[in-house]
Amino acid sequence: MSSAHRYKFFRAGGVDQATLGAWCDVHHLRALDPKLWVALAMPTRGTQIDERTLRYLDRDGDGRVRQREILEAINFLEATLDDPSVVLGGGDGVALDAIKDADVLASARIVVEALGKAGSGQITLADVTAYGEIVASLRINGDGVLPPSAAEDDETRVLIEALLGTVGGVADLSGERGVDQAHVDAFFAQAQAHLDWYAQGEGDSLLMPLGSETARAAAALDAVRAKVDDYFTRCRLAALDPRAEAAMNGADADLVALATRDLVPDAPEIARLPIARIGAGRALPLAGAVNPAWVERLDALARLAVAPLLGAERARALTEADWVELNARLAPHIAWAASRPASAVGALGVDRLREVLASPAKAKLTAMIVEDAARDALNKRVAEAERLLLYKRDLFEVLNNFVNFSRFYDRKLAAFQAGTLFLDGRSCALCFDVADAGKHAELAGMAAVFLVYVECTRGSERRGIAAAFTDGDADNLFVGRNGMFVDRQGRDWDATVTKLVAHPISIRQAFWTPYKKFVRLIEAQLAKRGAEADDRSQSLLAGFTKPLAPADPAAPATPGNKPVDVGTVAAIGVAVGGIGAMVTGILGAFLGLGMWMPLGLLGVVLLISGPSVLLAFLKLRHRNLGPILDANGWAINGRARITVPFGGALTSVARLPEGAERVLDDPYSDEGRRWWVYALALVVILAAAVGLAVAADVDVGAALGLEGSTSAAPDQP
């Protein structure tokens, strides 16, 4: 895309990146090809940039800042400030005479005047924060929420508390719970619905046969309904078959079990027994010989329902016909009560609800909310001042972590760098916050970077990070190792390795890897042979002690020791001689190189380490920051390579400080006191090689490049 503005680009990470050295570079970003932006989107969380700034940038509220929203922020600054280039200098203060937008300037003046700083001539982010705290504490603060403390009189305060207890509420700017217009409307709507429902039964004798006491009568009936139905059903069975009467009154075993216990009237075992003695055609006594667990409930039934509806003469005993009639008299009320609106406002009582609805309470609350909301416009204007101050402080930092990665490649700590991990004698500056290590590793593994996932704890706080190891080796990196993580605020965290994503770390590691593998192989073989030799020695000792033990006549006879096979010994000697001849031949060929011996040594080293170094070099060329950031919610537009030199700068290996003195005499060293052992071992190996060569009829002189030498071995028969 052609443009009159000429950008300057710098090369870093294998990518050409636009330099933002002046505001004209920022102004013309709208004309810069989006494919030349390093990032196209970044998350609003998990970075080291103030989340308030990122929330203002995220105009659509989707949790991501995109290229379009960056351009909107630039337009806002140019429309608000006389000289938007002041953004390049950072800082969270703006001179009032530098603001050209009238609304933002007016809100800025309100802030500084409210704080008594009108003479300062500027507004800072701290001023806006302090003003917000003042506004939050005001009775009318613009949030449209009325807490009880906002009431002008006790009656209003009690009503707001009643609303909170029935329809709930929301938190206002200060954090205190209050009611907004939606909750006020809900309360009065539910109150009216409850009164309308109550009015249906209030003047209907069928629905309210006992007036206001009908509800208590219905409740008394409902409390014993199942048990009384059970009683009359058992009496019918007793009338059907006299043999059933004893069984319907309960099993003897149940009564005997009760006799051995300390009983109370409301014990569950007693409540499960019939409510009264079962008999064919018997009426239910409401007092006297009844189950102790049901005495109070039967008494309430007699007083509240039977006597008022059926007459006092039937309040001592209830026939089945009386029971049916009683249910029929209260059935309409019970059905009407079941249709009661499902809301909590009914708990205030009909009288209280009528009082509230008859008063101007709703209009008063609505007027207070309207008055409160009227201040919201001012709050939004102040929010624009806060937006301006946050952009002035942070937008240029965002641009240098979005349009280009200059902060990262200049080693000035990019927005995605969470801190520094100290582990295994190294400090890793490339650390990322990670919420889910398993999910993150699926994509981050494509970066070809050796990643160590670490769980960090600091008191009750926990966080997960991924650290990139870009120098040194991986010999002592394993799950469970402990280290220390220092975040960008300078706080220390305990760190424990939980997961590794292995990739080559450095050329040095690749060079020494074959030798380390060879040493580990030898150690493993020596350990194996040592274990086998130990087993053989234990068996040999057991064989020596066996003749001393008394003979077991039942044990089968074992054959005696077989003589050593001479052919086997000869085969072993030939094999050893062949190996010695091969070693001597290689040594002789190497010594025969003369002045070309260093080149021969270099060739051997290249033969051993070359493939490993070449493979590591190819993989290190593909180290890419993009997949790691993509796994954290970024959208990286291209490759952001981590070259070998840059990787060495990101991971610092422990080194002695410059000018430090070093005493090499370690009294506990294994190395310093055993040089003579190694020298003796070398002499023995060389002597053994020569001896084996002689035994194998090899011309040692020729092998060693010495003219005139002949083998001293006699002819073999």
Can you walk me through this structure?
- The protein has 717 residues and is of the alpha+beta class.
- Among the domains are: 9-138 and 377-409, no CATH class; 148-202 and 353-374, no CATH class; 211-342, no CATH class; 677-717, no CATH class.
- 49% of the residues lie in helices and 11% in strands.
Which SSEs are present, and which pair or pack?
Blueprint: E1 9-12, E2 15-18, H1 23-27, E3 39-43, H2 51-57, E4 64-66, H3 67-80, E5 93-95, H4 102-114, E6 122-124, H5 125-137, H6 154-166, E7 170-171, E8 177-178, H7 181-202, H8 214-240, H9 244-248, H10 252-259, H11 268-271, E9 284-285, H12 295-310, E10 317-318, H13 320-338, H14 350-358, H15 361-374, H16 376-399, H17 406-409, E11 419-423, E12 426-428, E13 431-433, H18 437-444, E14 450-458, E15 461-469, E16 482-487, E17 492-501, H19 507-545, H20 566-591, H21 597-620, H22 626-630, E18 635-636, H23 644-650, E19 651-653, H24 675-695, H25 700-703
Antiparallel strand pairs: 1-2, 3-4, 3-18, 5-6, 7-8, 9-10, 11-12, 11-16, 12-19, 13-15, 14-15, 14-17, 16-17
Helix pairs in contact: 3-16, 4-16, 7-14, 7-15, 8-12, 8-13, 12-13, 19-21, 20-24
Task: Provide key terms for this protein.
disordered C terminus; single chain; 717 residues; 25 helices
Arrangement of strands in the largest sheet: 13-15-14-17-16-11-12-19
Mean residue pLDDT: 82
Unreliable residue runs: 698-717
Query: What is the number of helical segments per DSSP (H or I, 4+ residues)?
Result: 25
DSSP strand (E) fraction? 5-15%
The percent of residues in helical segments reads 40-55%
Q: Return the structural class.
A: alpha+beta
**CA distance, first residue to last residue:** 92 Å
C-alpha geometry = flat
Largest sheet: 8 strands, antiparallel
Beta strand count: 19
Radius of gyration: 47 Å
